[in-house]
Amino acid sequence: MTQITEYQKMHHYMGIEMNMQTWGLLEKKDRSEQGDIRMVMFAKASLFHWKLSPKFHPVNEQRGEWLISRVYSVLGKDEEALIHAEKTMKLTEMFDFKDFDLAYAYECLARAHAASGNKKESKNWYKKAKHAGELISGKKDKEIFEGDIKAEPWFDCLN
User: Fold this and answer.
1) Distance of alpha carbon 97 from alpha carbon 78, whole angstroms
2) Residue 157, phi-psi category: left (phi > 0), alpha (psi -120 to 50), beta (remainder)
3) Which residues have CB under 8 Å from 45's CB, separation 6+?
4) Where are the beta strands (DSSP E) in 35-135?
5) Domain spans, the chain
6) Entry pTM
7) CB 61 within 8 A of CB 50
8) Which of 46, 61, 93, 131 sits at 20 to 30 Å (Cα–Cα) from 87?
9) Cis peptide before 54 (omega within 30 of 0)
10) 29-69 pLDDT, tens per residue?
11) Helix ranges restricted to H, the chain
């Protein structure tokens, strides 16, 4: 059995910590411009550290790409949001992720298209996300997803 090094433990810890810092800023109503920059950097750092964690699995990369897409969507940076949403979907398809992770892959594509003002694509992916969300098996996972999909911004694309 391979011994986990302190270096690897640090990356695991930092992946989690950067994720929590990102969410703290995402949920903050009155973020500054500096807070927006930090939020992007934290999301990217979280994925970087997860990739070096001894507990890394492909789903961690998929969720990290989702988080980066979400951050860019919230900031209205549609091109970057779409790039990371497409990476999320590519990983979802490559590893045949289902349930919670499939619903979130659809959600981030819907939100990225909303950020770009593409109502048709946003609504299309939103419907897929809602349907996939209804099929999430875990009660807590379903509650988390339902809360996230209701969260703004949707840039008036769902009307």
Assistant:
1) 25
2) alpha
3) 14, 18
4) none
5) 81-152
6) 0.96
7) yes
8) 131
9) no
10) 899 999 999 999 999 999 999 999 999 999 999 999 999 99
11) 6-26, 33-51, 58-74, 78-94, 99-115, 119-134, 139-150
